[in-house]
Amino acid sequence: MSINASDRTLGLISIWQVLRKLNWEIELIKAIPEKITVGATPASVLHCQDAHLYATINAASTSLAMVDWLYHTVSGSSVLTSNIQRVLQGVNLKNNKAFLLYLRNAFSVINACHQICNANKHFHLNTPDDQFKVMVGEIIFKNDDGTEDLTVITQIIQNRNDPDASTSVPEMLEKAAIWWEQLLTDVDLPGREDFFPASSKR
Asked: What is this structure's pTM?
């Protein structure tokens, strides 16, 4: 039996609040400079070499965490359970693992977040998804003054049978945030106005 852990979420109490966190993390990714000068002292924590990767992994983790938040939010309400069954045809609400598997199979953005987070959490995987491929590359630009600038590219190459899967990881995360907001709205989860005033809709 699971026990409500809101006494240790550091103030996060609503899935809408977690979605707002995801949106903040996506804005953080955008705020990180596209290029850094190799060997230069970082101007701030946003200018360190792997800042883009750290922020991207964090955002993917938040998106994945929303799966459990949504499962426990709807499973505690017969009305919300009925709503999500109407919105997600054939959804499996047997337990949180079954719900995650359903979402991974049905929505490529959730599978991508799962693949990124699972690999970063465990480093070694017993049964990796051989239909998911991601590429990370560093591009170095040589400047006229002799300095070098470095930029990092993170690109999803394959995500199962999704024909639109080939995209940058930040773009995938933006799609995930939009998908999450639409899903929570369609399920009619209460509390949106507390964290997303009407004037701040995407």
From this structure: 0.89
**CA dist., res. 95 & res. 44, Å (int):** 43
Answer yes or no: is pLDDT of 110 > 80. Answer: yes
Quickly state the pLDDT bin for 201 (edges 50, 70, 90).
Answer: very low
pLDDT band at 2 (very low <50, low <70, confident <90, very high): low
Quote the strand ranges of the chain, DSSP E.
36-37, 132-142, 148-159, 167-168
Residue 99's nearest CA partner among 123, 74, 71, 129 is: 71
32, 55 Cβ separation under 8 angstroms: yes
Question: What residue spans define the domains of the chain?
Answer: 14-35+46-125+170-193
- Cα-based distances in Å from 154 to 17, 139, 166: 27, 11, 11
**H or E element, residue 97:** helix 96-106
